[in-house]
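Figure 3 (text version): structure tokens given as input.
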């Protein structure tokens, strides 16, 4: 049977791709951000995941405003990155875990989640950059299953619904008949807003409370409506839904192994959290 090792949640900002390309990891602006990943990389070197299930939101590369699934899952043999217009280098393709993908599709549909199943899927910066932060040589040691949650076109799924999605994924992984170590990633957030009158909005107090909640009271944010969450964290800060889904996938007790929080990276309050399955 498969084992969930833990979860890594991190922000994703296109500028990270430019900083990697220009080798700015030790630059004063970037150092507090990149240094956060050292402990996570060391943990991964020990934990040796075989597969990563990645909750993220596509920003218009694979799904555009004309066709926007609330929940989508990849079931492809491989996933490629492509130009999103940020001018950042593309990364090598990722090998898909088709067996786990189809097991999750079966389990999620049986649990009344109407997933869009994608046998072809491009993955954008929200998927590629977190993996490049965890494995800087970009020789991906894991097979992947991408799971997309819409956070770009309203209406969005509620935080409680995203929690249930993660819970169902976690239970299905535990029932997957494969001798595999599974890592769950959640990418996005924390507070940020890119457009409109509140462009530049950051809410450190809320972010820190949210980070604390993921170990102490992980369903805390699910008791708040999407509109109220957006008021707190901004229209793109709502990407924290990925963190909730990833947290919900962890069975039993969790142990916070590492966290980093740094303002700003581009327009974003950058968060990083490593939760180990205790
Ligand atoms: C930024 C943040 C994001 O989450 C994103 O998807 C694109 C840009 C930013 O802060 O620049
Ligand atoms: Fe984003």
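Below: residues designed for each position.
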């Amino acid at each position: 049977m498969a084992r969930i090792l833990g979860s890594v949640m991190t922000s994703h900002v296109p500028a990270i791709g430019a900083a990697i390309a220009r080798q700015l990891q030790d630059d004063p602006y970037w150092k507090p951000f990149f240094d956060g990943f050292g402990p996570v990389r060391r943990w991964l070197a020990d934990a040796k995941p075989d597969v990563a299930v990645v909750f993220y939101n596509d920003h218009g590369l694979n799904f555009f405003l004309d066709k926007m699934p609330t929940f989508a899952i990849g079931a492809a043999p491989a996933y490629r990155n492509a130009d999103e217009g940020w001018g950042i280098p593309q990364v090598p393709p990722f090998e898909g875990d088709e067996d786990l993908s189809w097991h999750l599709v079966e389990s999620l549909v049986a649990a009344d989640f109407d997933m869009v199943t994608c046998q072809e899927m491009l993955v954008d910066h929200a998927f590629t950059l977190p993996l490049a932060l965890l494995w800087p040589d970009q020789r991906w040691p894991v097979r992947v299953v991408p799971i997309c949650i819409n956070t770009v076109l309203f209406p969005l799924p509620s935080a409680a619904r995203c929690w249930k999605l993660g819970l169902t994924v976690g239970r299905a992984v535990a029932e997957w008949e494969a001798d595999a170590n599974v890592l769950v990633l959640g990418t996005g957030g924390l507070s940020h807003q890119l457009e409109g009158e509140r462009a530049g909005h950051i809410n450190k107090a809320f972010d820190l409370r949210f980070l604390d909640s993921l170990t102490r009271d992980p369903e805390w944010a699910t008791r708040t409506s999407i509109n109220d969450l957006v008021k707190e964290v901004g229209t793109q800060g709502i990407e924290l839904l990925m963190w909730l889904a990833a947290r919900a996938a962890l069975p039993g007790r969790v142990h916070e192994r590492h966290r980093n929080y740094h303002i700003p990276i581009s327009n974003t309050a950058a968060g990083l959290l490593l939760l180990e399955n205790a």
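The two ends are 17 Å apart (CA to CA).
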